[in-house]
Design goal:
Layout lengths: L3 H15 L6 E4 L14 E7 L2 E6 L3 E6 L5 E6 L11 E7 L2 E6 L3 E6 L23 H11 L6 H6 L9 H10 L13 H17 L41 E5 L4 E5 L15
Antiparallel strand pairs: 1-6, 2-3, 3-4, 4-8, 5-7, 6-7, 9-10
Helix pairs in contact: 2-5, 4-5
Length: 277
């Protein structure tokens, strides 16, 4: 699933071709979202909020998409052949000289912009780590509130009500860098550790908002194709830890059934509560 850095870059690309321009054509799938309502309006701005993308048009309408596991936005020149099948297009927004196409997104809706404040999902998002001034203290406090009843820190970090934009890759990488076992109960971690997890999450996301490759090791050029050297633990089950050589472990974690990765030596299990008051 695309994470916050990917959506941030997508918003930048779409903003460059759509913002300030009139919509000459707009359509969605038959029976789907009324993307056609954007036709004739001017795109005022494009923004990302965590894993969500918002295209704001004049007259108080907003196109909201969430890409899920398989969705993506593409930008094309006018008349350029699409790289995916037209049948996969769920939203098409054309302006003079350019076409933006959203493929395979499970969430596509056109909303009254004023209604975003009460949207059942958007209104409950935690601080967007890529916002100009995110409330990092608020994010750490939300981990404490939502990390009750034995929820693991790996599970809580995926909760978009805590940190908007963190996904499966970053939760594993952030926990590794802060030497926190992701299957540790969140309530067993002290406030200082929670603060470091939030700070590192923002730092990694921000560092990957530009450039063609995502890296958490700082080795953006290492390995071709599959990104060897760019990540510490994610996707490396059974391979040696880049820090200590121990074999990386992973497991599918409830309730989201997403695989999480860690080094059992660099990230020892923690069971006793260490909460500070």
């Amino acid at each position: 699933m695309p994470e916050g850095d990917t959506l941030f870059r997508t918003a930048e690309v779409l903003r460059a071709v759509l913002a300030g321009r009139p919509v000459t054509e707009a359509r969605g799938r038959p029976g789907g979202a009324r993307v056609d309502l954007l036709r004739g309006r001017t795109i005022e701005r494009v923004e990302s909020r965590g894993k969500h993308l918002l295209v704001h048009a004049s007259g108080g309408l907003t196109l909201h998409t969430h890409l899920g596991m398989h969705g993506s936005w593409h930008r094309y020149r006018e008349g350029e052949a699409w790289r995916r099948a037209p049948a996969d297009a769920v939203a098409v927004v054309a302006v003079p000289g350019a076409v933006a196409v959203c493929f395979s997104a499970p969430v596509v809706e056109v909303l009254d912009t004023k209604a975003l404040a009460v949207h059942p999902v958007l209104s409950r998002l935690g601080p967007d780590l890529l916002a100009a001034e995110p409330s990092l203290d608020q994010a750490a406090a939300r981990i404490r509130v939502l990390g009750t009843e034995g929820r693991t820190i790996g599970d809580v970090l995926l909760d978009q009500r805590v940190l908007a934009g963190i996904g499966n890759v970053y939760r594993s990488e952030v926990c590794f860098l802060e030497r926190v076992n992701p299957v540790t109960p969140a309530e067993a971690l002290d406030d200082a550790t929670l603060g470091r997890l939030v700070d590192t999450s923002r730092r990694l996301l921000a560092a990957n908002t530009h450039g063609p490759f995502r890296t958490t090791t700082g080795d953006a050029l290492a390995g071709a194709g599959r990104g060897a050297g760019r990540l510490w633990v994610y996707g490396r089950t059974g391979r040696p830890c880049r820090r200590c050589g121990t074999l990386i472990r992973s497991q599918v974690a409830a309730p989201l059934a997403r695989r999480v990765y860690w080094c059992p030596v660099c990230q020892p299990a923690v069971t006793p509560a260490r909460r500070t008051t």
